[in-house]
């Protein structure tokens, strides 16, 4: 049957096949990034989580305007007890993930719920991820606090 197809038909078939495969890969990447984000938020009080989530060359701009790099982020764990439960539980809502080949933008609303029942804080976060050697890592991050209403 294939030998009876015209060159134009074969090109069209090849393009359609690539689109189908590409959309399946993109859907898989979105699932991977979503799971990665939620795992990161649930275990963000652990240094090991930050070691794998952030790329070595990450640029992180916090909601207070402070620019940080991976070494700065990890330095924040010096002297901390890895067995202590966090004071704030983080989760993410309104997750919007856009995959562009080996790069992706992850935007979401971060919800910080204090264990002591004090005021919940909300932030908009946007991260840029690169897939290097088959592994997604954040290379840029921007956090913006949402003022209480």
Summarize the structure.
The chain has helices at residues 7-42, 47-53, 70-75, and strands spanning 54-61, 67-69, 88-100, 103-114, 121-132, 135-146. It has 149 residues and is α+β, with helices and mostly antiparallel strands.
Description:
The protein has 149 residues and is α+β, with helices and mostly antiparallel strands. The protein has one domain (2-146): Nuclear Transport Factor 2, Chain: A (Roll). 33% of the residues lie in helices and 40% in strands. It is built from three helices and six strands, in the order H-H-E-E-H-E-E-E-E. It has helices at residues 7-42, 47-53, 70-75; strands spanning 54-61, 67-69, 88-100, 103-114, 121-132, 135-146. Strands 2-1-6-5-4-3 form a six-stranded mixed beta sheet. A hairpin with a 6-residue loop joins strand 4 and strand 5. The termini are far apart. The relative contact order is 0.15. The model has no long low-confidence stretch (mean pLDDT 88).
Features:
3 helices; Nuclear Transport Factor 2, Chain: A; alpha+beta; 6-stranded mixed β-sheet; elongated
What are the SSEs and their pairings?
Layout: H1 7-42, H2 47-53, E1 54-61, E2 67-69, H3 70-75, E3 88-100, E4 103-114, E5 121-132, E6 135-146
Parallel strand pairs: 1-6
Antiparallel strand pairs: 1-2, 3-4, 4-5, 5-6
SSE string, helix = H, strand = E?
A: HHEEHEEEE
Shape: elongated
Q: What oligomerization state is this entry in?
A: single chain
CATH class descriptor: Alpha Beta
Biggest beta sheet attributes: 6 strands, mixed
Helix content: 25-40%
- End-to-end separation: 66 Å
pLDDT under 50 segments (min length 5)?
Answer: none
Query: Averaging pLDDT over every residue, what do you get?
Result: 88
Tally of distinct domains: 1
Query: What is the correct CATH architecture?
Result: Roll
| DSSP, total strands | 6
The total of helices stands at 3
Share of residues in strands: 35-45%
The CATH topology annotation reads as Nuclear Transport Factor 2, Chain: A
Structural class, judged by helices and strands? alpha+beta
Global Rg: 20 Å
In the sheet with the most strands, the strands line up as 2-1-6-5-4-3
